[in-house]
Amino acid sequence: MQMIETFSPEETFELGQTIGQQAQPGEVYTLVGDLGVGKTVLTQGIAKGLCIEEPVNSPTFTIVQVYEEGRMPFYHFDVYRIGDIAEMDEIGYEDYFYGQGLTMIEWANLIAEILPEHYHQILIEKDLEKGFDYRKITIQEIGGGR
């Protein structure tokens, strides 16, 4: 488990960029945190680390956005508004989760029963006593090794 503290959106972005640079094809990351905690900023950094130049925003109404232009495909899920796990089957989630790209899933706790056996969990938390832009980011490997 790794715990990182950031004190600005720029630092959170840079952490994401490092994650993107180190990411390997087929990895799955889950992203958990309250609204407004910086999930999109971190994700934009990851995309930059994957050499993706197009704008990356939360795919709130489409469940998944696919970016093909980087050094590997980037599959960005936001399952906040998912009504039923069957919606994930309809979009063929397994093709993404077990594909050759990097998968990032925001609000992954809502689809816990279909997450792969092995993934990286990223938890972002605020602590207003440490400042408005302070974030505690915990990265943990879940499940066995590959």
CATH class: Alpha Beta
Instruction: Give the strand order, joined by hyphens, for the main sheet.
Output: 1-7-6-2-5-4-3
For the secondary structure, the number of strands is 7
Mean pLDDT: 93
SSE class: alpha/beta
* CATH topology label: Rossmann fold
- Morphology call: globular
- Low-confidence segments: none
Determine the N-to-C terminus distance. Answer: 17 Å
- Please indicate the percent range of residues in DSSP E strands (runs of 2 or more): 25-35%
Radius of gyration: 14 Å
> What is the second-level CATH architecture?
3-Layer(aba) Sandwich
The CATH homologous superfamily corresponds to: P-loop containing nucleotide triphosphate hydrolases
Measured as a percent range, the helix fraction is 10-25%
Query: How would a crystallographer describe the biggest sheet?
Result: 7 strands, mixed
- Count up the domains: 1
How is this structure best described in words?
This protein is of the alpha/beta class and 146 residues long. The protein has a single domain, classed as 3-Layer(aba) Sandwich (Rossmann fold), CATH 3.40.50.300. It contains four helices and seven strands, in the order βαβαββααβββ. Helix 1 crosses helix 2. It is globular and about 45 Å long. The model has no long low-confidence stretch (mean pLDDT 93).
